[in-house]
């Protein structure tokens, strides 16, 4: 029964985020907000909503290990599986801004998370620092992209926003209706997050699994489904640059926004296993940067290496 509830929770999370993005994009379009700005804010936050809902719910429920593991697990799942599979399907060229700015910044904040975790907790002050860095990143990203409206979209998910906006142009809903749609989406996200946390906790208890392991595997994979589907579909359509931008952007949002909010709401303790996983996430992010810097792309070899690393680390987490 817990597995069924878990699946229902994932469905509510993903559908809720999708409905929220659709409604919010419609409202933004009505008030003449540029499509690119919609992608950099509403859509990017919407795809991180599942991680946010699960991590905040876990933090409030006292399941700190699951809260951290969800973000950390989602991040290295995004790199190793999402980018790994995408690179096997097609060669992924990397933009200069991604190599020079976005990926180094992701490495930096991943390392910063390790520093915060050395005392085995993330305090409200740490959460505030993460949120301030999020604001800094968002402002700079918006300025950079608005200054190059005809250039490639470094945030990746902006392209998805444009499609969402174009879809609403032919079917403009009334403002009250779009507000209701947004509220329904938020309810789905929050309710789905609660169901995932509760059911995952019961599964962990029933099978003698730790909350950290459940968060790293089942929960992290479930909340990363939007990124996985988006990237694979984008690559199959030839929009290969979206795959990398989608992952880098989502990982930055997960660390700064999701963990920042979770820690600000309720300080989180970190276990030794969670700290080890955070170090692994940082090393994987650094490896991604090295591959990008050296080759200006991700290819099949990189993809197979990423998947092999993921399988090996999952085996380690199960037996440790």
Automatic annotation (TrEMBL):
Keywords: Membrane, Transmembrane, Transmembrane helix
Gene3D superfamilies named among the record's database cross-references: NCX, central ion-binding region
InterPro entries xrefs: K/Na/Ca-exchanger (IPR004481), NaCa_Exmemb (IPR004837), NCX_ion-bd_dom_sf (IPR044880)
GO cellular component: plasma membrane
Domain Sodium/calcium exchanger membrane region: 2-142, 179-318
Places the protein is found: Membrane
Recorded GO MF terms: calcium channel activity; calcium, potassium:sodium antiporter activity
GO biological process per UniProt: intracellular calcium ion homeostasis
Main localization category: membrane
Transmembrane segments: 76-93, 105-122, 128-146, 175-193, 213-235, 242-264, 270-291, 303-319
Mode of membrane association: Multi-pass membrane protein
Record Pfam families: Na_Ca_ex
Protein's UniProt name: Sodium:proton exchanger
Species of origin: Paraclostridium benzoelyticum
